[in-house]
Amino acid sequence: MFNVASAAGGSSSMLMTILPFVLMFVVFYFLLIRPQQKKQKQRNQMLNALGKGDKVVTIGGLHGTIVEMTDDIVVLRVNDVTKLTFDRSAISHASAKEAAPVAKA
């Protein structure tokens, strides 16, 4: 009635059906998910390391220097008189710290 050989063949068939899906998930993880997580972690570290005097570029391409900061708001000085307020998440990347002004003799 019940054949042991056919039962063993059935579990092997089920394993061969599931194996490609597991393999696809592993490939997606290493090619898509993991690099995106690393990039997000680096971005969060960059945003947390920002401070007054850092030159930054916003997502829209505006260049400015950080004048004031709170937890989620950044005030940028664009030129001598213009200050603009942005969300901290609107910062694309930091350029460099602003050099200290040189005193004229």
From TrEMBL:
Residues that span the membrane, as ranges: 12-33
Protein name: Preprotein translocase subunit YajC
Membrane topology category: Single-pass membrane protein
Family: Belongs to the YajC family.
UniProt-annotated location(s): Cell membrane
Cited NCBIfam families: yajC
Keywords: Cell membrane, Membrane, Protein transport, Translocation, Transmembrane, Transmembrane helix, Transport
Species of the source: Paenibacillus wenxiniae
Stretch forming the signal peptide: none
Higher taxonomy: Bacteria, Bacillati, Bacillota, Bacilli, Bacillales
